[in-house]
Amino acid sequence: MEVTWTTLLIVCPLVFLSGLVDAVAGGGGLISLPAYLLAGLPPHAATATNKCGSVFGTGLSTLRFLKNGRVRLGPAAVSATTALLGSVLGARLCLLVPDTFLHYFLVAALPVLAVFLLFKRDFGLENKADALSGPLLMLLSGLIGLVLGLYDGFFGPGAGTFVILAFTALCRFDLVTASGNAKVVNFCSNLAAFVTFALAGEIVWALGVPAAVCGLWGHYTGSGLALKKGAKAIRPMFFVVLGLLLCKTALELAG
Known about the structure:
This protein is mainly α. The chain has helices at about 5-25, 30-40, 45-65, 75-95, 100-120, 135-155, 160-170, 175-200, 205-230, 230-255.
């Protein structure tokens, strides 16, 4: 595919915005993937090149959260491992089961989740994970990775956001630590997909490289915002991501 200045002007600003949103609350793919499709890439090339942009940005965000001590390495590592397994299982399940029922579930569940976040204003303000025993924390982290990996392999959009919410609700992390742990999970998942697509020759490098630079910039900006502002920055971004996911799912059902 020939990459023109028009293509770059369509993709690069949206990939920057995607990286910013993804670093704060996950769900950046809801912005970046449509950008590649809008620029004229076929679906497989769009998905592959999108990973080129996201893997480096997610890696940068992960390093920043690690440097600031906002990642619990044990739970994050367990969750990342089980997420890879869940992703494989989800991809295979996708071949057997139509995803229509999941669309209907999301259309019903997303507004409920948004209302919960709207009224639960203390959600994720404090880190209460130390109240859980070590084995229970590891078990919950493993289950989160498995279930969300399965969702990511089966359907995908918004998986990073759901990982943050799950770490906060079940493991009782504050939103910043939950976001840091989610970055580890996302990075491992993105890296595996990136290597697979690169070896298959599906990535449009002439577009993927400049997009990756914009993604790095977006992730750097977003991770700094999340680390500095904490829940005050993360909570509002959740509503943006959940709204985008609801619109995407409803449009797919209508189509």
